[in-house]
């Protein structure tokens, strides 16, 4: 009977060890799963950091290009301010190296300095003078006609 008790104790111990081994095996598997998850998360974080870095590098490059383009636009503006005197309400457009004037109707020349309508009297104060360097035209106010709006209608 004593051997039977020892056998039962041994069997009980063996079952206990088996249970512990099973738990230990489950713990090892859980540890491996956690380790794999951490590696995957770490790789994902590293990928995201690299993507963010590339995005920031591209943004900085685009900002530098924009600033460079803006500097060129400012050069054109500086050319308009310092060199160009667009007369007769002309509009100055500039590039980094030059400027040009867009003249209002009735004006011409590099700086819109030439006009046939030098005074209000060209249309007798009764119309809008539209002229080029070769021709003068009056758009007469309502109630006036003639080449220089000289006739009351």
From TrEMBL:
User: What is the residue range of the signal peptide feature?
Assistant: 1-19
Coiled coil where? none
Cysteine pairings via disulfide bonds: 103-112, 140-149
PROSITE patterns hit by this protein: EGF_1, EGF_2, EGF_3
Annotated EGF-like domain ranges read 76-113, 114-150
> Cross-referenced CDD domains, in alphabetical order?
EGF_CA (cd00054)
What Gene3D superfamilies does UniProt report for this protein, alphabetically? Laminin (2.10.25.10)
Q: Which UniProt keywords apply?
A: Disulfide bond, EGF-like domain, Signal
Cited Pfam families: EGF (PF00008)
Entry-linked SUPFAM superfamilies: EGF/Laminin
User: What is this protein called in UniProt?
Assistant: EGF-like domain-containing protein
